[in-house]
């Protein structure tokens, strides 16, 4: 990814994260730092090696700096070994018989855990280690409980979500006021209408987006499929509301899309490279990793639904999972529990990571303090007052994401380019998705 050294190398939030060494701590005493119990006398623990693995190659060069060294400093008896992804896909790792103690991945990849039978319910460890789940952002806990059938396979460590990024230069050029925090969708679309125009041979779009990111994290909590029937829900009222909201943006006069601009790459290019789009709704991490000083930009909150004030998009957390095959489950749990500690989370927030703690006001107060490009930016707008409930609550839903994206893109393209009406586009795309899902789940 672009600008890894500037921002993303130090920042792993959903795709990547940011961290430097944390202050050290005492060796594990059989309780996590979050136990709340009396601290027993320190005792020397037997050395253990914990093997961490993610199938995301972005971590290959950064894992030890970001996580491993900090865990070892906190727990000197633990040696962290990071198994690089590289060409080591999960199936290859399984075939070698390599033990993995901790797997980590975003919720969108979590079906890998169950596909290869690595899932392990840590509910008992949560009790015996006296870990306080209530300190974590609630939707990330509920999401995991849904995924694990009311158990817990892992702990969330950082997250990603959507926000509104805007080009101040375009607003200044046309004498339009900047977007305000707390705007609803109608207000945002009205603002986009005032900016959408053709001037000096340049077509300016008021608002563009990452369409797939916005549908996956939609405020209606609509998924691509019903996990019980394993069939598309494209034609349901709830999904149609989410779809209609996104496609309505392209119907703003002057904000239309064409064959060159409707795609993910096309809309992002208008904002980041061409600088012909005034505002962008996109993933926080990918936006911050792409933005530099190419233009004067800032951030505003994601638009709200008029009937759901304060509710933003969904959260897209990354979880660290103690595996079924691990030989040192208590030590592995202590290690990942430390990554949720206030000390560790606050340190990472300073470096540009979206905190996973429930008290995100305190966390966001320090967000980006160690990242020069975020100075004087409205970083508090990166997190909503409240996340919408997650739609990715079942293994089947996560597993169906890839064919779901393909079907969504087809329907979205047809509607924004005007080749099909919404009902026809969704019905036909849903039928194709049903065929793919039947093959996927047979």
TrEMBL record:
Residues of the signal peptide: 1-21
Alphabetized UniProt keyword annotations: Signal, Transport
The keyword Transport is annotated on this UniProt entry: yes
Coiled-coil parts of chain: none
The keyword Signal is assigned to this record: yes
GO cellular component: cell envelope
PROSITE patterns: PROKAR_LIPOPROTEIN
Subcellular location: Cell envelope
Family designation: Belongs to the bacterial solute-binding protein 1 family.
Protein's name in the database: Extracellular solute-binding protein
Origin species: Paenibacillus hemerocallicola
Lineage: Bacteria, Bacillati, Bacillota, Bacilli, Bacillales
């Amino acid at each position: 990814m672009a600008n890894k050294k500037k921002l993303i190398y130090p920042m792993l939030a959903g795709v990547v994260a940011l961290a430097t060494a944390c202050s050290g701590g005492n060796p594990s005493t059989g309780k996590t730092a979050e136990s709340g119990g009396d601290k027993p006398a320190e005792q020397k623990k037997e050395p253990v090696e914990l093997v961490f693995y993610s199938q995301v190659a972005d971590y290959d060069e950064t894992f030890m700096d970001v996580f491993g060294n900090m865990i070892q400093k906190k727990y000197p008896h633990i040696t962290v070994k990071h198994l690089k992804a590289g060409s080591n896909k999960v199936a290859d790792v399984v075939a070698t018989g390599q033990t993995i103690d901790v797997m980590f991945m975003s919720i969108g990849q979590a079906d890998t855990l169950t596909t290869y039978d690595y899932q392990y319910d840590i509910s008992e460890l949560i009790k015996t280690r006296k870990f306080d789940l209530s300190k974590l952002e609630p939707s990330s806990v509920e999401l995991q409980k849904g995924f694990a059938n009311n158990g817990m396979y892992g702990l969330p460590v950082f997250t990603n979500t959507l926000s509104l990024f805007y080009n101040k230069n375009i607003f200044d050029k046309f004498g339009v006021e900047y977007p305000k925090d707390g705007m609803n969708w109608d207000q945002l679309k009205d603002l986009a209408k005032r900016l959408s125009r053709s001037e000096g041979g340049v077509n300016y779009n008021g608002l563009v987006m990452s369409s797939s990111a916005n549908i996956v994290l939609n405020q209606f909590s609509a998924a691509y499929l019903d996990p019980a029937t394993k069939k598309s829900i494209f034609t349901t009222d709830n999904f149609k509301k989410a779809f209609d909201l996104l496609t309505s943006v392209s119907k703003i006069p002057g904000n239309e899309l064409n064959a060159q601009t409707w795609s993910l790459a096309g809309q992002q290019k208008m904002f980041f490279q061409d600088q012909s789009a005034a505002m962008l709704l996109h993933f926080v991490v990918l936006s911050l990793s792409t933005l530099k000083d190419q233009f004067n930009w800032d951030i505003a909150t994601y638009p709200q639904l008029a009937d759901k004030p304060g509710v933003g998009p969904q959260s897209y957390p990354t979880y660290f999972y103690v595996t079924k095959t691990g030989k040192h489950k208590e030590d592995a749990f202590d290690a990942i529990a430390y990554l949720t500690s206030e000390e560790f989370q606050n340190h990472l927030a300073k470096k540009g990571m979206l905190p996973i703690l429930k008290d995100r006001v305190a966390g966001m107060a320090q967000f980006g303090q160690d990242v020069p490009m975020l100075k004087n930016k409205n970083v508090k707008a990166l997190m909503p007052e409240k996340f919408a409930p997650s739609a990715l609550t079942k293994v089947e839903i996560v597993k169906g994401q890839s064919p779901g994206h393909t079907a969504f893109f087809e329907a979205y393209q047809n509607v924004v380019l005007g080749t099909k009406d919404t009902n026809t586009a969704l019905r036909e795309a849903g039928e194709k998705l049903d065929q793919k899902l039947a093959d996927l789940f047979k």
